[in-house]
Backbone:
């Protein structure tokens, strides 16, 4: 492990795991009646045997929890039962792949018999992503109206099993699921995480692993920041120097890289298998030095600047007065839209300080229709509100919690005129911000963002003059000016990312820091088993020996 990633707790991993399991056992034994998080219990719950994870100990917090009856134990005889739906079968195979290495059980998948773990699609009040989980001595049943809901229910089932279930070698068990019922639907449709692969490039395998981490907490959007001043990371056949030249470097002058179209399709395929939608971003008209360095004609003076490896912003701009700029934009949008089965395409639009206001408006007025032409919905950073957002556009607000900011009023006006709103306030959700002054990774221009600060706010009332009903969701960006290794991504994302995921999923009534930090602490053994290099934030009562 890099010295940058060494945690406060230097206890050997096996000892930490043992201590964690003892703590979970103790808390499970004491929790004889978990309070429903979004509803009321039908009856007083039965006492839980030691070692059981209470139904309400998961992240994100479920909408309704009703503990009742005895637990179900996964044994060598457990089957995973499905109906004939191919999506259900794929989710069952995913679940089996998670459980087999640590349990050592065969866990055959079948459409016959009774008991065991059953995954079923059925009409009901679940919506597109909700689910119901019923557990008792005879088995566990996860029911949903759509495959995405079934997949999310499986993530809850994972968290109800001991954290060691995530290990890739056989563990001791026992593998018990507390008895009762969970009924759950998300608060917001957009629950996103952004990964910047432009400042530093991360390969396909790293992105796929990050997707797997996101899926555990019911994130449903992966926003990929594919271009910036320091690098262009997606192949565009009609403009090949974007990658061969513009993708050749990174912050600090290190090696760059880019995704071929096959690479990108593999990321999209893997995300879809985890029920995440990829939202690609090509930032325009600013943050474009990699493109400007690749093609001189995109510059107003026809002179290509040198490649850039620093971290300053706001100095680059496509030439809004040239027709070739819009030929370029259309080619990029067309090729990226053809690669992307999802509904959205992000066109950036932030920090275009070298673009005059009139040129910015002209650029956005010409580029937004191109996104619609190729069948996608515009997403852009909140500076788009200074122009005229296209009908149905989503504005991603990254401003901060400070008074007198004129951009807030412009965003509110854009929302009033029909734009949707994604909240990514930098001083709450930017995962690249330092935890404390002593954090050796990350930046601090927005704020020091500790775990509580990332969690303890409400998207529903964050912006004045914006009604709660106008909020489409939340997103946690991870910028990579100071991050170049996969473990560094994990260290900055965990433990903050699960809290932002909860803000996106869970009812506002469940929001409580004191309760949340206990649930967050219980994730520690799981992350240990998964090999996640997380930050042991001192605000969280992590398990100890």
Residues:
């Amino acid at each position: 492990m890099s010295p940058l990633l060494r945690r406060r707790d230097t206890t050997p991993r096996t000892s930490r795991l043992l201590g964690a399991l003892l703590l979970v056992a103790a808390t499970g034994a004491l929790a004889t009646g978990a309070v429903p998080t979004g509803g009321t219990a039908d009856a007083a719950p039965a006492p839980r045997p030691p070692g059981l994870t209470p139904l309400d100990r998961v992240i994100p917090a479920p909408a309704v929890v009703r503990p009742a009856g005895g637990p179900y134990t996964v044994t060598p005889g457990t089957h995973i039962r499905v109906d004939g739906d191919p999506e259900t079968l794929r989710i069952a195979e995913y679940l089996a792949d998670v459980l087999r290495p640590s349990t050592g059980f065969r866990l055959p998948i079948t459409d016959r018999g009774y008991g065991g773990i059953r995954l079923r699609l059925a009409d009901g009040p679940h919506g597109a992503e909700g689910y119901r989980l019923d557990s008792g001595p005879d088995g566990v049943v996860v029911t949903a109206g759509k495959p995405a809901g079934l997949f999310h229910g499986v993530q809850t089932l994972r968290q109800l099993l001991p954290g060691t279930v995530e290990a890739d070698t056989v563990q001791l068990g026992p593998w018990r699921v507390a008895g009762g019922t969970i009924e759950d639907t998300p608060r917001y449709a957009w629950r996103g995480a952004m990964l910047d692969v432009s400042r530093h490039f991360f390969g396909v395998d790293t992105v796929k692993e990050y997707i797997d981490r996101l899926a555990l907490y019911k994130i449903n959007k992966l926003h990929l920041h594919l271009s910036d001043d320091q690098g262009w990371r997606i192949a565009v056949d009609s403009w090949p120097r974007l990658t061969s030249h513009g993708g050749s470097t990174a912050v600090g002058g290190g090696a760059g890289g880019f995704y071929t179209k096959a690479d990108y399709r593999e990321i999209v395929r893997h995300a879809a298998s985890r029920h995440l939608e990829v939202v690609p971003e090509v930032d325009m008209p600013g943050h474009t030095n990699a493109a400007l360095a690749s093609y001189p004609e995109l510059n107003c003076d026809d002179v290509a600047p040198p490649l850039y490896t620093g971290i300053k912003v706001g100095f680059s701009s496509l030439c809004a007065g040239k027709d070739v700029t819009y030929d370029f934009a259309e080619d990029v949008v067309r090729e990226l839209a053809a690669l992307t089965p999802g509904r959205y395409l992000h066109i950036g639009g932030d920090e275009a300080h070298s673009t005059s206001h009139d040129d910015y408006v002209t650029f956005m007025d010409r580029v937004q229709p191109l996104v619609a032409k190729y069948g996608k919905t515009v997403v852009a950073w909140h500076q788009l509100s200074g122009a005229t957002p296209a009908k149905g556009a989503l504005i991603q607000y990254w401003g901060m919690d400070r008074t007198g900011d004129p951009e807030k009023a412009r965003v509110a006006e854009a929302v009033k005129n029909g734009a949707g709103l994604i909240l990514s306030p930098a001083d709450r959700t930017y995962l690249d911000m330092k935890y404390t002054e002593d954090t050796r990774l990350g930046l601090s221009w927005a704020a020091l963002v500790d775990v509580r600060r990332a969690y303890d706010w409400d998207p529903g009332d964050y912006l004045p003059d914006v009604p709660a009903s106008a909020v489409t969701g939340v997103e946690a960006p991870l910028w990579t000016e100071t991050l170049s290794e996969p473990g560094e991504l994990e260290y900055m994302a965990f433990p903050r990312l699960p809290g932002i995921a909860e803000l996106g999923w869970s009812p506002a009534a469940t929001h409580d820091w004191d309760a949340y930090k206990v649930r967050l602490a219980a994730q520690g053994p799981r992350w240990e088993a998964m090999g996640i290099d997380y930050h042991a934030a001192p605000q969280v009562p992590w398990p100890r020996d």
